[in-house]
Every structure is written in structure tokens, then in C-alpha cells.
Write the C-alpha cells for this entry.
Amino acid sequence: MILGRRIYYHRVIGSTNDEAKRLAEEGAPEGTVVLAEEQTAGRGRLGRRWLAPPGSSILMSVLLRPRMEPGRVQKLTMIAALACAEAIEALTPLQVQLKWPNDLYVRGRKVGGILTEVGVRGDRLNYAVVGIGINVNVDFSDLESPMVFLSVSATSLYNELGYTLSRPDLIREILERLDRKYARLKEGHSFKAEWESRLLNLNREVCVITPTGEIEGVAIGVNEDGALLVRTESGIETVWAGDVTLRKV
Ligand code: BTN
């Protein structure tokens, strides 16, 4: 197993992704994992903040050094999301769906997300850091909690299960699965079908807000590289980045 050969554990850190990137620049080997109980500058996609009460969640970054074009790293997000979904399902009775491009959903609410960031040298990928945030033992329904404002759109495994879950067990399950999927990815395996089987909003009318404008149509799947496929009036659009909402029809 490559992942977890080195594990750095922090009680408090700015962002595990930033720390993994710093270690990567110093030459840390593939498979290095950074874990934290608390982040003071946790980040989500599109520069959003990632909040989690201390000691409640999985805040983890995994350093990978695949031979891959920088533009293909969504494949790493794909395998990380699948590993997390399968790990949660192995340890709980919950079912996990994936909201393109990087979200883990349980019963229609977000329970976690993946943030993959890269370091490039020239036009080559030097490293990728796959950041994993999962709301494990957070109580979003606690009215005293500063997190309660998130309870409309976010949930936690605790809120869905009604009991707390061992974070070390979940971390181990995720790393073992991610390790196997990473090996298969390098052998050329496609994760398209596995992703589509969990894709939230599959075959639904969606609106995708992309950096270059809005795309309306039916979400019909993802391609091998993890781009979203949307059937529009003018044909099938391949969407590389964006935010998906259900279309009000
Ligand atoms: C998202 O849903 O937008 C992605 C969230 C990713 C959060 C994780 S927590 C561990 C790692 N460190 C960070 O600063 N972010 C990621």
C-alpha cells in the first residue's frame, strides 16, 4: 500500500492541503498523508471556506505524484469521491451519492467534499494533493452551534446515523480503497460507470453555471476524465468546471 506510508498528524493547522503542498515542494514521497483535528484556514472549491468543529471530522490530504497531464486530475477527484462513498457504505447503512464535480451527498444533503490541487513544473504535473473533508461527528441540528446555519444544505454522518462513528476506522477504509483505485487508475481503468451509478441529478434537467456561462439541459453522465455530459438543444456539451443546480421547469 502506497498511501499512508507517511502520516503527519496535526491538532491544529491552517489547511491540510496547504501543508501537503508544502511537503510536496520539499520532496515528500507519494502517499504522504496529512491529517488534522482542526483547520483554521480550511478551503473548499472556488475559494469557499471549509468549516468543521475541532475533533469532529475528517480533514485529510493525500499527496500523489501520478504521471498525468495536469488537465486530467479530475480523475483523482473521481477516485477519491468513490473511495469515500464506498468507505462510508462499508461502515454504515447509509447510501452515498456524488454531486458533480466533487461532493458527497447523503439523503440530499452534502456530507463531504474533495478538493484536488496541483503543483506543475513547466507543463508537467509535479504533484497533486487530494483534500478530503467529511462531516463525521458534527451536529448541525445543535442550535447552540455556530455551524447551525449550514444545516439546510449540509449534514453529517452523525446527523444521519444518530450515533458517532470512529474517524480512524473511516480514514483507514478510505485510504485502503483509494490506494486500490489509484493503482487501477494507473493501469488505465475507467471509473466512469461507477461514478454515473452514484451521480446525483442523473437524467434530470439541470442548469450548470460555468466560468463561461450557463448551460441548461439534461445531465446524462460523466466522461472518462470526469467531465459532466449535458444534453442540450444543440447537442451534448462536455462541461469541465461549474456548479450544478436542478432546473426549475
Ligand atoms: C468542497 O466541497 O468544496 C471541498 C472541500 C474540501 C475540504 C478539505 S478538508 C481537508 C482539505 N484541506 C482543505 O483546506 N480543504 C480540504
In short: The first helix runs from residue 16 to 25. Helices lie at 16-25, 74-91, 157-161, 167-186, 192-196. The pocket of biotin is lined by residues 15-17, 39, 42-45, 48, 50, 59-61, 102-103, 113-115, 131-133 (CB under 6 Å).
